[in-house]
């Protein structure tokens, strides 16, 4: 059937004389979420009361009556769902060529329905069967996507003058090449009746003569007799009584026989399809256990989703028809439609892991936004009970509207879960309780963890075999949390511990309960209640944890056995490095009363010259950089000619000033005074990761700085999502690396003489996804050599800083891991020393963008020919530069809240010693969210 199939109905069905003011607007009869559904639309100017009206399919059975108080507002949608797992509205299923009919109250099975739509025979309403008003005519057709609770979309424009109600099949387009017939396995039932379904996806019939089915044994064979065929697009079922040629493994011959006489499909088996010459054509893969849906084997099969091409999965039985696979146990759990960026969270409500590779998020405009989604990376697995957050930076680039639909699709484009919300929440739309509850408007967003229904306090660690037993609670928010009256129980409701009045937990802090009135068992559960509302719980199986049972990673992760008990402190998980308190000061000072930079500013670096100390800042939205003069009192002012900054441009965009430009995440300066920015993608192609370092001459007079040299590092770095690439870049001189950095190529300590045709140092870059740090020799011809790879043990790295005082590299994560930092000590071996530190106590857990510190200052300024190549760029003599003690570090932040970084105590105690630069980059990850003010970037100083 043509994708443009359209049917017209009389004008009166939608005109001024319509009996209801509401029309049937969209229907899904197969593959909907959670199953079949019917949508109604009020096209009138007044509320319409549907109380008592009756909805039926083309059968007289099981009519559905709208309950009292069913009101549809003007220009609003009402959706009813088929009953599934005890939830839903109507209890009839919609089939191929079926109808939806609406009757007056009390007139079920009446002679004349008030409203009706019917889709073509032998056709499911897939993606959906939808209506639109075209010049007073209600025109029906197959949509290009289901848009539950939103306006319909169609693959082609509806003709101005509808054709006859019965639209004939379109003739073959001249020159169109027919698709040859073929055959694949499509569906298998192993209990209670054995049958196999084949499918021909081509446009021509296919000869099956001599083709053979086998189970997991080559002795069990059944073949098609001569002159057997499968028609174009046909589903062909071979059941127990289908006649063919059965194989006798004793005589090695074939004779007339039924499928059941040759093959009995077992509970641990597979089905294979062979060509007449014996080549394997297709196989289902093995399964263990007969398929069943909630214990019902009659209703269940294993089938391809999508027909003919998808992987075999649990399905509702549809012999001889399009497959209807059981949706995975996924629920949309939380939505922020008014965030920076927007995001939506899903949760795995089942007890098995789910491969969500290739999945996407879509809103109610799938046509316009088809190119604005980024499928999840291969190997993305969602564990039972775990959460995944789709965000508007990494996974989609459109905004969720003030009243929209969130649709989750699998790699085959099938709808897995869908939720339509009426408007922006005052806070966040969240299910209470997680995964199964209704959506409510909550004040605190919790992307990636249990929803903040009631008090957001969470269990973080449990000791069930201690002396005494104890439970550690955590405050995952950025404000002090009152936990007075919170009740902690084990799996026995009579065992209850009530937290005393006046008890609070500081932001990000812990509360240990070690005076419980009950003991915690080896096969037990800890539950936390806010009144009658369960806000968190965890169980650990049939035995005590060898150490303790805690969240991994700390605060945000799923529960697992920890590496060691950490009562009242951050959890240490298997393979993790112990985290020590920050050794420096917690003092924070705001340097700019009003935010200085654009909201997407992403990095800072310092430069010491005879003319003073300068800060370099970079913005990732348009690739703009700034040069700022830093004074001894901590104040900063734009350098001459830099009030508006200058844009860094790709070489390819030199003649196109309107090009979007690089997504610049970090900035650094080398010993020659040249500026380098790190870009993770071209902003004109945001769906493609492109990790580049661009070199510019900052003294060029033009407002746009065209890259002098570009190094494309994409192929040398791990494959990551479009917006999960380079987050930081740091130049380090050879003198600091010789004999200390381990060279992966020579398998020995770094020797700079090995790498010719380059500058006097290496460039370290950090990749957000995975948290790797990589050292490159950037050659003058634009090529690059990967010298060393370092794993700092962080989930993500958004900042790098070589600390010349301590002789270490700092790698810093943002609020995605609580502002934790790694101190990397290069020791000439493949295992550098790694130490982890918490963020400074005075820093909120918000995105830290950059943190440069003191570095050497040279007596003689470098000289650069304007617009040309640098000359005499090496400093003649350098001395220690003293920054004021109150400004050991400067931090660039986005003003969701102020944030900064501090220098370690050792550096602070040595104010005369030269320090280093630090730069950092933006992160899109977040574990908690509060409604922020307008995003701008600002400077803070801390000791």
How would you describe this protein?
By secondary structure, this protein is mostly beta strands. Helix content is 1%, strand content 38%. The chain contains three helices and 80 strands. The protein has a six-stranded antiparallel sheet with strand order 1-12-11-2-3-8, with no helix packed on it. It has a six-stranded antiparallel sheet with strand order 19-14-13-26-27-28, with no helix packed on it. Strands 21-20-17-16-23-24 form a six-stranded antiparallel sheet. Strand 58 and strand 59 form a beta hairpin. The N and C termini lie far apart (71 Å).
Q: What does the largest sheet look like?
A: 6 strands, antiparallel
Structure annotation, total helices: 3
Q: What is the averaged pLDDT score?
A: 82
> Structural class, from helix and strand content?
mainly beta
Tell me the distance between the termini: 71 Å
What portion of residues belong to β-strands?
35-45%
C-alpha Rg (nearest Å): 33 Å
The total count of strands amounts to: 80
Going across the biggest sheet, name each strand in turn: 1-12-11-2-3-8
Low-confidence segments = 1-18, 157-165, 167-175, 853-936
């Amino acid at each position: 059937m043509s994708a443009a199939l359209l049917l017209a109905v009389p004008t009166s069905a939608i005109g001024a004389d319509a009996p209801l003011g509401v029309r049937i607007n969209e229907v899904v009869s197969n593959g909907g979420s959670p199953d079949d559904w019917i949508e109604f639309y009020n096209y009138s100017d007044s509320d319409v009361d549907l109380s008592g009206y009756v909805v039926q399919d083309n059968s007289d059975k099981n009519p559905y009556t709208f309950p009292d108080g069913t009101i549809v507002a003007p220009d609003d949608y009402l959706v009813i769902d088929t009953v599934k797992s005890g939830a839903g509205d109507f209890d009839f299923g919609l089939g191929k060529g079926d109808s939806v009919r609406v009757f007056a109250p009390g007139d079920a099975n009446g002679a004349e329905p008030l409203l009706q739509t019917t889709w073509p025979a032998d056709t499911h309403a897939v993606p959906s069967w939808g209506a639109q008003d075209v010049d007073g005519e209600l025109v029906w057709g197959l949509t290009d996507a289901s848009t539950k609770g939103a306006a319909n979309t169609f693959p082609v424009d509806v003709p101005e003058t509808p054709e006859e109600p019965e639209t004939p099949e379109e003739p073959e387009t001249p020159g169109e090449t027919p698709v040859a017939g073929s055959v694949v396995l499509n569906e298998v039932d192993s209990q209670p009746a054995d049958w196999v379904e084949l499918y021909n996806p081509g446009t021509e019939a296919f000869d099956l003569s001599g083709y053979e089915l086998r189970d997991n044994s080559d002795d069990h064979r059944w073949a098609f007799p001569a002159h057997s065929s499968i028609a174009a697009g046909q589903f062909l079922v071979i059941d127990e009584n289908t006649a063919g040629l059965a194989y006798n493994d004793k005589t090695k011959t074939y004779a007339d026989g039924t499928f059941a006489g040759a093959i009995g499909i077992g509970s641990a088996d597979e089905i294979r399809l062979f060509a007449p010459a014996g080549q394997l054509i297709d196989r289902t893969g093995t399964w263990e256990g007969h398929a069943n849906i909630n214990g019902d084997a009659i209703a269940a099969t294993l089938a391809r989703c999508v027909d003919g091409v998808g992987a075999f999965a649990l399905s509702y039985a549809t012999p001889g028809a399009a497959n209807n696979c059981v949706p995975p146990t996924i629920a949309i759990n939380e939505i922020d439609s008014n965030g920076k960026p927007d995001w939506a969270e899903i949760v795995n409500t089942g007890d098995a892991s789910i491969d969500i590779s290739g999945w996407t998020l879509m809103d109610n405009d799938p046509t316009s936004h088809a190119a604005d989604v980024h499928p999840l990376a291969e190997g993305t697995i969602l564990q039972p009970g775990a959460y995944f957050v789709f965000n508007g930076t990494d996974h989609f680039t459109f905004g969720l509207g003030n009243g929209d639909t969130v649709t989750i699709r699998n790699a085959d484009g099938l709808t897995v879960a869908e939720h339509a919300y009426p408007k922006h929440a005052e806070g966040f739309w969240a299910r209470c309780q997680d995964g199964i509850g209704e959506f409510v408007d909550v004040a605190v967003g919790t992307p990636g963890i249990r929803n903040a229904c009631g008090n957001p306090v969470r269990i973080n660690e449990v000791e069930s075999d201690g002396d005494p037993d104890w439970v550690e609670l955590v405050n995952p928010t950025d404000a002090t949390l009152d936990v007075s009256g919170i009740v902690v129980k084990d799996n026995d409701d009579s065992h209850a511990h009530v937290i005393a009045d006046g008890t609070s937990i500081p932001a990000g802090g812990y509360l240990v309960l070690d005076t419980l009135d009950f003991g915690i068992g080896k096969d037990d559960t800890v539950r936390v209640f806010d009144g009658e509302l369960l806000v968190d719980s965890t169980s650990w199986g049939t035995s005590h944890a060898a150490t303790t049972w805690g969240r991994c990673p700390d605060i945000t992760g799923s529960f697992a056995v920890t590496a060691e008990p950490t009562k009242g402190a951050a959890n240490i998980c298997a393979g993790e490095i112990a985290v020590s308190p920050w050794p420096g000061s917690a003092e924070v000072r705001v340097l700019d009363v009003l935010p200085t930079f654009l909201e997407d500013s992403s990095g800072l670096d310092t430069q010491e010259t005879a003319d003073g100390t300068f800060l370099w800042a970079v913005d990732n939205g348009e690739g703009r950089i700034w040069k700022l003069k830093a004074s001894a009192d901590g104040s900063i002012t734009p350098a001459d000619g830099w009030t508006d900054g200058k844009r860094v441009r790709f070489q390819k965009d030199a003649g196109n000033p309107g090009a979007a430009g690089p997504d610049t995440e970090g900035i650094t300066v080398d010993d020659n005074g040249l500026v380098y920015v790190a870009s993770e993608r071209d902003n004109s192609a945001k769906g493609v990761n492109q990790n580049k370092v661009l070199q510019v001459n900052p003294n060029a007079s033009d407002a746009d700085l065209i890259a002098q040299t570009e190094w494309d590092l994409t192929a040398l770095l791990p494959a990551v999502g479009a917006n999960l690439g380079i987050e930081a870049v740091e130049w380090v001189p050879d003198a600091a690396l010789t004999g200390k950095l381990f060279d992966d190529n020579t398998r020995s300590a770094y020797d700079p003489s090995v790498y010719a045709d380059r500058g006097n140092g290496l460039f370290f870059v950090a990749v957000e996804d995975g948290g790797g740090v990589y050292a490159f020799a950037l050659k003058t011809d634009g090529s690059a050599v990967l010298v060393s790879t370092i794993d700092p043990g962080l989930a993500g790295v958004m900042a790098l800083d070589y600390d010349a005082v301590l002789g270490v590299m700092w790698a810093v994560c943002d609020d995605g891991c609580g502002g934790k930092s790694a101190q990397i000590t290069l020791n000439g071996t493949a295992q550098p020393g790694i130490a982890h530190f918490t963020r400074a106590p005075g820093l909120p857990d918000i995105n830290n963008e950059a943190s440069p510190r003191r570095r050497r200052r040279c007596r003689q300024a470098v000289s650069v020919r304007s617009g040309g190549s640098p000359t005499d760029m090496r400093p003649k003599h350098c001395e220690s530069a003293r920054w004021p003690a109150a400004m050991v570090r400067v931090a660039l932040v986005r003003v969701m809240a102020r944030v900064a970084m501090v220098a370690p105590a050792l550096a602070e105690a040595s104010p005369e010693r030269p320090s280093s630069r630090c730069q950092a980059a933006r992160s899109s990850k977040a574990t908690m969210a509060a409604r922020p003010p307008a995003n701008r970037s600002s400077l803070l100083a801390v000791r």
